[in-house]
Amino acid sequence: MPTTEAKIFNCTQSRELAEKIAENYGTKLGNVITSTYSDGEFQPSFEESVRGSRVFIIGSTHPGSDHLMEMLLMLDAAKRASARHITAVMPYFGWARQDRKDKPRVPIAAKMIASILETAGATRIITMDLHADQIQGFFEKPVDHLYASTVFLPYLRSLNLDNLTVASPDMGGSKRAYAYSKALESDVVICYKQRAKANVISHMELIGNVEGKNVVLVDDMVDTAGTLTKAADLMMERGAKSVRAICTHPVLSGEAYDRIEKSKLQELIVTDSIPLRQKSKKIKVVSCAELFADVMKRVQDNKSISSKFIM
């Protein structure tokens, strides 16, 4: 039996998702207000007692940096208000692409963010589809790393696609693609790409046969959509019957929406880990709220959540 009352709060950027999570959890969001000074500085404030409680703070840390800063301030506020357990629920863990030194004199931002979150007061982290699995090891506190496949696989199966083939848009996502292909009992193809610089692809080649196939591209996030749309167009040129994509986190910056509309992608399926900046007929959102609510309940009740780690 739980020994402390659980309270759920949200950062402003994740208000809509937090409301869905709280509804699935069976409670209402806690009362928190954010005051903003004229120069842009802001201060979150819990308007109810959290002393001795288990506190869940929901907020994705996608750009800009204010989203991360708000999470840190709320963690610190909960710690100073004597919350017993403080869980940072981060559907999207930002800065995760900087998980190693890929050239001299650059930071490992993901490790730095992990350390800052713990210093601010997080005693547990719940997140989904990290850019790299090893980021879990950057934390000294428990990390519950969930897979969006829990919500994507039922949707894909409902499409009843014949000649299904799972594809990875780059070599780095091959492990994820193989996991989906195993669950869907399908073939796998891989795209090999070379970058001229960040977000700029100089060359792309396809490893595998997609002729006559219904292809599903799988990735953890979609940023500028350059890789995704280029891969989709290449596969259609190679004889694919259709190409759709599932990407957990819809960062969708720059010309992403325009690229998606003009591409040969039939559909882009994403979660609501990050709110969409605009609507698109090609983008379908599948909510991850029920997944997070279930895991949060299990954490509160000290129950196993191992079933949520299975692809």
From TrEMBL:
CDD domains: PRTases_typeI. GO terms for molecular function: ATP binding; kinase activity; magnesium ion binding; ribose phosphate diphosphokinase activity. Keywords: ATP-binding, Cytoplasm, Kinase, Magnesium, Metal-binding, Nucleotide biosynthesis, Nucleotide-binding, Transferase. Residues 7-121 form the Ribose-phosphate pyrophosphokinase N-terminal domain. The keyword Cytoplasm applies. The keyword Nucleotide-binding applies. It holds the Pfam family Pribosyl_synth. Its EC number is 2.7.6.1. It catalyses: D-ribose 5-phosphate + ATP = 5-phospho-alpha-D-ribose 1-diphosphate + AMP + H(+). It comes from the Bacteria. GO terms for cellular component: cytoplasm; ribose phosphate diphosphokinase complex. InterPro entries: PRib_PP_synth_CS (IPR000842), Pribosyltran_N (IPR029099), PRTase-like (IPR029057), PRTase_dom (IPR000836), Rib-P_diPkinase (IPR005946). One of its GO terms (biological process) is purine nucleotide biosynthetic process. This is ribose-phosphate diphosphokinase. The lineage of its organism: Bacteria, Pseudomonadati, Bacteroidota, Flavobacteriia, Flavobacteriales.
